[in-house]
Structures are given as structure tokens and as C-alpha cells.
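Hello,

I think I submitted the pyridoxal-5'-phosphate job twice by accident. Can you confirm which output corresponds to this input? Input:
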Amino acid sequence: MTSTNVLKKINFSAGPAILPASVLQQASEAVADLDGSGLSILEISHRSDAFDSVLIETEALVRELMQVGDEYGVLFLSGGASTQFFYTAMNLLNPDETAGFLDTGAWSAKAIKETKLFGKVNVIASSKDTNYDHIPTGYTVPEGLKYVHVTSNNTIFGTQFKEWPETTAPLVADMSSDIFSRPVPLKKFGIIYAGAQKNLGPAGVTLVIVRKDLLGTVKRDLPSMLDYRVHIAGGSTFNTPPVYPIYVMLLTLRWIKEQGGVPAMERHNERKAKLLYDEIDRNPKFRGTVANAFSRSLMNVTFVCTDEADTPRFLEAAEAAGCDAITGHRSVGGFRASIYNSMPYEGVETLVNVMREF
Ligand SMILES: *Cc1c(COP(=O)(O)O)cnc(C)c1O
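Support: Only one job matched these inputs. Its output is below.
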């Protein structure tokens, strides 16, 4: 899974993040001229035939790659994952109903805060006491919850769910930083949402997959723009959708399909993550920040220098080798290498070589 890259840096940014070189090339060509139409993708109407076929193909690829059936709506909305924190609650939760939460990081905590505006929250398990350094296990999900919310991958803390909570309630998942990185058992999920800028495209569009039969059960009146049913009925063109980000998402989904689909992505991601974690575990100069192997993310690899005094020097060495944006989030410190789908194996090899020689 290599890609020729005209750019000189290897982009380890947590988001907005790396995209395949071929996607960047095609995206820039479409700005100049969309498929020989004589028009730029930036200036076509969202009601044009050209954009209509973009939307149709993008939705079809989401459905094909994640095996999404007709019982789900597939939406391309704006407002980011942060808007979905309250949108999900507004559409699913009555004031006297309870949503369960697995509190596994800063993004979960924000989702909890917003959900409390609309209904009750039960935090089933949390890893907050240890600075979110693991995915909780051994908890029991109580009965009677309207849904259970999980953040499948914790972008900041470098942890990821490998097993889903055992519950008969539908899961609502923030998959912003690991969507399309591995197969998921879709039947368990009522809603999946993901801001595009980690694993799917540029900032500006949020993919939402929502089970239609869960909608219409809240008593409150919803503004049209904040009602999933309105967007389902309007095929994501109730208002002007983010045309260009959706187009780049389409290019990225085509690329995923060409690479062999989501199972191929998972193999590619496992291989890259193993290379990096093996070096962190082998090299006495480094230490992972996640408490156990089970919780480690395949997408965001967090680590520190064993001797803190080495930190600036390692950063310099990595940057000299072209590794960009590996500084960790301020709440964890050290380093974070984000190695999303689009990160080639060679990119991780470059970073690991810097670690070996350090
Ligand atoms: C980046 C991120 C968000 C925030 O996304 P916005 O699009 O900026 O609202 C939420 N959840 C997770 C898991 C993220 O990685």
C-alpha cells in the first residue's frame, strides 16, 4: 500500500489529517475542471446532475464498504462531530429517558455534557481517574437505556474499543477517528457519526449513519436543520451541503475500495501500528502512555521519552526526517503519531528508523 507523494513531509497530524496522494491530485484537478465538464467542483450547483451523481456514488460507497442496509439513512451534514454530540440526544432522547455513556476521553466528556441538555445520562464506566489511559472493562450495562454512547477511538489519549459494550440498547458511536479503519458489526449501532477530517477527507462534512426506526420517538419539536428525518427525506440536500468536502470524501472512499475495502484497511493499519508499538516496547528510550495493549489505538499512537529531557531532541530528529505534527496533545504530553488509513507503511518506517537511531 504505497503512494507516490510529491509532498516532502510525512503528515502525522491528528486532524485535519493525511489524505492519499492520489486523492489530493484528483481533488486539485477537479478544482480546475470537474471531469472535463468545463466547470470547477467549487462552482457547481448542489442541484446539478454532476453533484447528484457525486452524492449517489458517495452514499453507495458508504453502504457498500460498511455493508449498510436500507434500514439506515446515510447523511452528509455540517457542524462536525461536536454538533452530533447534541444532535443525537435531541433526536433520540426524551427528558425522562436515559442514555448510557462510556466515558473514555475528552470527546466523550463533551458528548455527555451536551446530552444532559436533553435527557438523563448514566455514566456506566469511566477511565477519567487515570487520565483516560485505558478502555474500561468488567462493567455491566444496565437495562432500560435508550441508547449507549461510545467514542470508538479516543484521538487524544490513543485508546480504542476492540470489543463493544454488551447491551440490547442500540449503540451510538462517535467514530470520527477510526471510521472505515476496520470492520464493525453494524447491527449493534443505532447511529454512527464521524467528522470527515480524520479518516475520510477534509474538514467540513460529517458522515452520519442512522437507523430510521429510532427516529420520531422524541416529543420535542425539532428545527428542520436539526432533524435527521428532514435530511433523510431531502437526500442530504435539504440545504446546500458541503459540496467540495463530500467530493473529496468520494475520492477517498474510491481509494479505500481500490485498496481492497475495509478488511484491507484493517490489515494495513494493524501492520503499521505493530511496527510502531513494537519499537516503543523494545526501545528503552520510549514508553507508551496507554496502560495496556488491549486498549491501544491502531490510529493514534501515543508515547513519551523515558527521560523527559530527550523530548525536544527527539522532536528535532523526527522533524529533520520529515515527520510532521508528532507532538502529543497537551493533556497527555510527549508524542502522538496519527497513522490513519492514508498513512503509508513507509511513513511509519521513517519514524521508527528515527527512534532506532536516536
Ligand atoms: C476530532 C474529533 C471530534 C471533534 O470533531 P469536530 O469535527 O471538530 O467537531 C470529536 N470526536 C472525536 C473522536 C474526534 O477525534
